Amino acid sequence: MATKLLLTFVICRLLSTVGFTVDNYGADHPVRRIDQGVFNGELSFGTSDIEKASVDFGLLNEAKPLGVLHPGSTNDIASLLKTANVDGFSVSARGHGHSINGQAHATNGVVIEMSGSKGFQFRSNLGSLPALGYENTFLLDGRNSKSNDSKRIPYVDVWGGELWIDVLKWTLGFGLAPRSWTDYLYLSVGGTLSNAGISGQAFNHGPQISNVFELDVVTGKGELVTCSKKKNSELFNGVLGGLGQFGIITRARIALEPAPQRVRWIRVLYSNFSIFTKDQEYLISLHGKPSSEKFDYVEGFVIVDEGLINNWRSSFFSPKNPIKISSINGSDGGVLYCLEITRNYDDSTANSIDQDIVALLEKLDFIPSSVFTTDLPYVDFLDRVHKAELKLRSKGLWEVPHPWLNLLVPKSRIADFDKGVFKGILGNKTSGPILIYPMNKNKWDDQSSVVTPNEDIFYLVGLLRSALDSGEETQKLDYLKDQNRQILKFCDESGIRVKRYLPGYKTQEEWKEHFGDRWGQFLKRKNEFDPMRILATGQHIFKPSFDSVSSFR
């Protein structure tokens, strides 16, 4: 008996080595019994598809599905979900695979490849997508009727698996572009809307979820529903920021604005944290001003590592003139803070752009000698991180573990966070960029599923670190993960009530604490739209009703 077991183990190891998928399920598993004839697309059991869907950008978890659906129509997604409800298996939607903690995994279930090349074969069948139109602005905020300040603005209808870079390229053909972005554009529309979608424009326009007129959603029950602030609003509000728990977004109606031609990109340095945050908060307070009296984008980052200021995300600075922390007088504990701001312009405003920027900069208290400016096309600015990605890929530094930690920190405690984390826990090595910028809470819809700190202003702090096998202790995965735990422990013990963005909790108790008094609403929506709890089990919020083990082993 022992010999047979050993032989079986050796065979399985050999099969795995040469690329075959080995699992404990045969042809009688419900996923394997699905009738392929009901799909316009393809339900794949191929090794390459399974392996791709088993990992994500984080490279921190691996979970194999039994099948991968490349949908040929929205009906394919509805049919799969109806079958999953009857036969009992989990389903997750996967965009560009940029999750960090396995959120799009479907252990022993089916992953829907929303952004894959095979899935896009059916775009010609969609006919009407992408498509342009006009809506009234009051439909964005849910007011009951048109008001005097309501106006018609353009929108684009897009497939939920469309990448934002492709949305940008298509709308630019009409002189238009979405109003709110993420820093990285190779993400799917449905993926970012299931979280929030934030970048430096959020102080002005709100996150991407605040810029959606209407959605088509296939609920966990397999029902295709059109929803908006005025129609099926409970589903609409729930899906936006809903972490994929209530349905799969197949179409989104995105608000647009006239696209600028160029961007003036400015970075200035600070050695004093309170002055840095004072200036950031002043700039986001200008959101209601005319475009000539405010910046279009406000972000920032922390520099605790002298090498980091000239790293991939800081390639803005000339390599011929590298910046050194030690060269900046008055740096507080070896830490600098960089304010990153932009102004959009075109031919009609080119003559006044310099004057407008000078007037804005005069009100800021940055280090006078630290102004760095560049000018570039609008598309190049929005796609800046992709260019850095290509550099990292060429060096083999992109497909590495990413133990990212993104926190929403209340304004009242951001100074304490600075002292305890930036000047404390992190030391002088970070292994990646540290973003920090404030946002206005009134630009976020409190009816959505996203939870944010209960203050008028809160900060995103994004520790976007990469684990490298360089031999240096501070770049190892275990070191960075332990540092993340230290940061969370510090916040908890100091009473800093942070909310995690793109959270990676593993227990329902942690999720209940995350949602706080909004857990009841979240649970109610789950019971209404996905009562079998088959969707997005990789989030570890709910156990599927059909199996209490498969997704939580």
Automatic annotation (TrEMBL):
Enzymatic reactions: N(6)-dimethylallyladenine + A + H2O = 3-methyl-2-butenal + adenine + AH2
Signal peptide stretch: 1-21
Superkingdom of source: Eukaryota
One MF annotation (Gene Ontology) recorded for this entry: cytokinin dehydrogenase activity
Keyword flag Signal: yes
EC number(s) from the headed UniProt entry: 1.5.99.12
Gene Ontology biological-process annotations: cytokinin metabolic process
Domain FAD-binding PCMH-type: residue ranges: 61-259
Entry-linked Pfam families: Cytokin-bind, FAD_binding_4
Coiled-coil intervals, chain numbering: none
Required cofactor names: FAD
Keywords: FAD, Flavoprotein, Oxidoreductase, Signal
Family of this protein: Belongs to the oxygen-dependent FAD-linked oxidoreductase family.
Name recorded for this polypeptide: cytokinin dehydrogenase
The species this protein was found in: Papaver atlanticum
Native organism taxonomy: Eukaryota, Viridiplantae, Streptophyta, Embryophyta, Tracheophyta
